[in-house]
Design brief:
With about 350 residues, the protein is α+β, with helices and mostly antiparallel strands. The chain is built from eleven helices and seven strands.
């Protein structure tokens, strides 16, 4: 009874017999009840025989129609079931043909989209593992080489050597911390301590904290902030966003250049922009700039170029607040601008979700 063709057959046969039986009642009942004058008609035996013929015809038509419809409907569903089993076995290259009715075609397209998303997620996971291994290999190799040389008494472990090893351990710690925060944010599990936050005050604090760095690099850092409403957000995370954007802008702006921070509000959201007159970005770089471990200048070392996770973390934190971030540039050597948008009120799901303090 659970087979699709059986159910369709019973349904069609039942509907047809119901129609025939209603027609039969419409003819017989008025005469039997005396509502219409009697007239010559088929005898009772003939009526019973016709009724049995109607039942047999209904059963035959229902069986044929049920089998036909079931084949039309169940064939793509069975193909999709086989594809699901293949995906469960790890074959993510599978795709089902898009055919049949509009509903079945839509189901097939949705399934193929899901399979493609799974392929991309698996590829991204493999790329992430490769990137992590690549990033960890260099500082670990440095630590191992220096410690081995010290153990073999080839190189004395003096204060300078210890300081160098310490810098490598700090890089490892920073990398692991960034990876943890990025993983939490992308899985929507990043703890946020949401509270009314004065973004103008955070901008002023960040600009002031980075002022000594601008003196060393001879880059002019300015801010222009209008009247901003309070935003419901995690001030610690927003400070991290500002710091990552500003240090990124200062790192890519040559001496004598300028970095400007502006912020404004349209009543529904706050728009924060960090613009610089530095190296600029090509269209290809604009598409990749928020990817993990992406560096616009691959020749930069890990120490001077950062871990390549700063902008990815900015994007993840902004999205965790219900906002977003975009980058634009007129081209190489013409500077770039990063625009952060944040809702003034926390999204409904965020208000109902986490209110835990950041550890």
């Amino acid at each position: 009874m659970n087979r699709l063709w059986v159910r369709f057959s019973l349904l069609i046969a039942g509907v047809l017999f119901g129609v025939f039986f209603m027609q039969f009642l419409a003819i017989v009942v008025p005469h039997a009840a005396g509502w219409e004058p009697p007239h010559d008609g088929p005898p009772d035996g003939e009526i019973a025989r016709r009724l049995l013929d109607f039942m047999a015809l209904s059963a035959m038509v229902g069986l044929a129609g049920g089998v036909l419809i079931a084949r039309v409907v169940s064939a793509p569903v069975s193909a999709m079931a086989r594809a699901v089993r293949q995906i469960g076995q790890g074959d993510l290259t599978i795709a089902v043909p898009v055919r049949g009715s509009q509903e079945l075609r839509e189901l097939a397209r949705t399934f193929n989209t899901m399979a493609a998303d799974l392929r991309h997620a698996a590829q991204a996971r493999r790329n992430l593992m490769g990137d992590i291994v690549h990033e960890l290999r260099t500082p670990l190799a440095v630590l191992e080489g220096n410690l081995r040389a010290a153990l073999d008494e080839v190189t004395p472990l003096d204060a300078a050597g210890i300081a160098h090893l310490y810098s490598q351990t700090r890089h490892l710690t920073r990398l692991v911390t960034d990876l943890r925060e990025l993983a939490l944010a992308e899985s929507r599990a990043l703890p946020l301590d949401r509270q009314p936050t004065d973004l103008a005050e955070l901008i002023a604090e960040s600009v002031q904290a980075l002022a000594p760095l601008t003196e060393e690099t001879e880059v002019r850092l300015t801010s222009e902030v209008g009247a901003l409403p309070l935003v419901v957000a995690d001030p610690g995370r927003l400070r991290q966003v500002l710091f990552n954007l500003l240090t990124n802008a200062l790192r890519h702006t040559p001496a004598g250049g300028a970095v400007a921070v502006t912020a404004m509000s349209d009543g529904a959201q706050v728009r924060l922009e960090v613009g610089d007159s530095g190296e600029g970005l090509t269209p290809d770089q604009l598409e990749m700039v928020f990817e993990r471990f992406y560096r616009t200048d691959s020749s930069r070392s890990r120490e001077t170029g950062g871990s390549g996770l700063g902008l990815a973390i900015v994007k993840a934190i902004c999205e965790a607040h219900g906002g977003g971030v975009q980058a634009r540039s007129a081209g190489k050597g013409r500077g770039s601008t990063f625009t952060v948008t944040l809702p003034i009120e926390a999204p409904a799901e965020a208000r109902q979700g986490s209110a835990v303090s950041v550890p």
